[in-house]
Design goal:
- This protein is α+β, with helices and mostly antiparallel strands.
- The chain folds into 4 domains: about 5-95, ACT domain (Alpha-Beta Plaits), CATH 3.30.70.260; about 105-140 and about 145-200, Alpha-Beta Plaits (2-Layer Sandwich), CATH 3.30.70.260; about 210-215 and about 320-410, 2-Layer Sandwich (Alpha-Beta Plaits); about 230-315, ACT domain (Alpha-Beta Plaits).
- The chain has 11 helices and 18 strands.
- It has helices spanning about 30-40, 75-85, 120-130, 165-180, 195-200, 210-215, 260-270, 305-320, 350-360, 390-395, 395-410, and strands at about 10, 20-25, 45-55, 60-65, 85-90, 95, 110-115, 135-145, 150-160, 185-190, 235-240, 245-255, 270-280, 285-295, 320-330, 330-340, 365-375, 380-385.
- The protein has an 8-stranded antiparallel β-sheet with strand order 1-2-4-3-13-14-12-11. It has an 8-stranded antiparallel β-sheet with strand order 10-7-9-8-17-18-16-15, sandwiched between helices. It has a two-stranded antiparallel sheet with strand order 5-6.
- Helix 1 (about 30-40) packs antiparallel against helix 7 (about 260-270) and helix 9 crosses helix 11.
- The relative contact order is 0.12.
- This is ACT domain-containing protein ACR.
- Binds amino acids.
- GO terms for molecular function: amino acid binding.
- Keywords: Repeat.
């Protein structure tokens, strides 16, 4: 039998200023909170309050969310249900978690070739359509010709797993044409083999100076200066207040995806959350309290593990994404680094936020690439945007960096 109908319940707020409430009642697994927070973030929603509890087999989660005026609630519910672990339903109506015996196969990768006439905000407009149609952009290569035309190559996967069908391909190209009109010249979508997908991965060179600016918090023997920042992050860990759990308390400035960043870090460390509370207070200030244990069901007693986990949490909450602007002669280059978790996923909609911020600034994109780099023991998804000639004269590089960061962090 299937999953119960009340696995995910969404109560939409009557007043647009009030948060909607998402209730999830399902089997538990390590990292489930991270997966659910990522989906909520993918739909353009921010969590302003959260309560999580589990006995290790079954969990109950409440999320108060705000964001887009008209999110696709039915589709969000469908995606949240899909993220919940499989279950079997017994005659007594008690549900038990059924562990999956096999890892799901990687999704097929497709190459979407888009050509058209260049205009400000074009890459964002295309990206917005692809995101709305539930295509995940794995890599992108954008180039502009001297005669004012663009050729965009998007390597994408399809959440709906229908991109192998002619109907799905036609629907995507038709949607792009309806949004872009005569700006669009052509749209082609084709399946690419794993070998082609791997060989097309971009690993552009990052100079030592750029790496130091962007990843200085990751480099050994480097000390961050959180205490001098208005975005102060406090992380404490205690083993005396609970007989069976280590308690992690966090106080910091809020940002878009904060709960996702926290859960992602705990998932990477294989830490299980038994109970947690999260709330945004007074605009940007937020408090987070988590009752956690290791995968073996024990507290975190090892002082080195405590130090490593606290340090990583401070780092992820103080500086979740890295942004730098580099000038090379007449060219201005924007670089954004997005951390990738151990499952190979990074924060969603980063390319959407970057291109939206640049569109609002009226800044043209001459070329764009997405590559992956291993810095120390971490993998990063790095976005490299070459801005159009002359734009750096009208918009300062500091303004570009600030506005892109504000968009990524959800700061008005």
């Amino acid at each position: 039998m299937g999953l119960p109908e009340d696995l995910v319940i969404i109560n939409q707020a009557e007043n647009p200023k009030d948060p909607s409430v998402i209730t999830i009642n399902c089997p538990d697994k390590t990292g489930l909170g991270c997966d659910l927070c990522r989906i909520i973030l993918l739909f353009g929603l921010s969590i302003v309050r959260g309560d999580v509890s589990t006995d290790g087999k079954w969990c109950y989660l409440l999320f108060w969310v705000v964001g887009r005026a008209n999110p696709r609630w039915d589709l969000l519910k469908e995606r949240l249900v899909e993220a919940c672990p499989s279950s079997c339903v017994l005659a007594s109506r008690i549900f038990y978690y059924r562990a999956e015996l096999q890892q799901p196969r990687p999704p097929d990768v497709f190459l979407l070739k888009f050509s058209g006439f260049d205009q400000k905000g074009l890459l964002h407009d295309v990206t917005e359509v692809l995101c709305e149609l539930e295509l995940t952009i794995k890599r992108v290569k954008v180039s502009t010709t001297p005669d004012g035309k663009v050729m965009d190559l998007f390597f994408v996967t399809d959440t709906r797993e229908l991109l192998h069908t002619a109907q799905r391909k036609d629907d995507i190209c038709d949607r792009l044409r309806s949004v872009l009109g005569d700006v669009m010249l052509s749209c082609e979508i084709e399946w690419v083999s794993h070998e082609v997908s791997v060989s097309s991965q971009t690993n552009f060179f990052l100079s030592p100076a750029v790496m130091e600016e962007m990843f200085s918090l990751e480099l050994p023997n480097e000390h961050s200066n959180e205490s001098s920042s208005s975005n102060c992050v406090s992380v404490s860990m205690d083993n005396s207040l609970s007989p069976s759990h280590t308690i992690i308390q966090v106080h910091c400035q809020d940002h878009k995806g904060l709960l996702y960043d926290t859960m992602r870090t705990l998932k990477d460390y294989n830490i299980q959350v038994s109970y947690g509370r999260f709330a945004v207070k007074g605009g940007r200030s937020c408090d987070l309290e988590l009752f956690v244990m290791q995968a073996d069901g024990k507290k975190i007693f090892d002082s080195s593990k405590q130090k490593a986990l606290c340090s990583r949490l401070r780092m992820e909450l103080f500086h979740p994404l890295r942004v730098a602007v580099v000038t090379r002669g007449p060219d201005t280059e924007l670089l954004v680094a997005n951390p990738v978790d151990l499952s190979g996923k990074g924060r969603p909609l980063v390319i959407y936020d970057i291109t939206f911020a640049l569109k609002m600034l009226g800044t043209c994109i001459f070329s764009a690439e997405i590559g992956r780099h291993v810095i120390g023991d971490r993998e990063w998804e790095v976005y490299r945007i070459l801005l159009g000639e002359g734009d750096s004269l009208s918009v300062s590089w500091e303004k570009i960096k600030t506005e892109v960061m504000k968009m990524l962090m959800g700061w008005e």
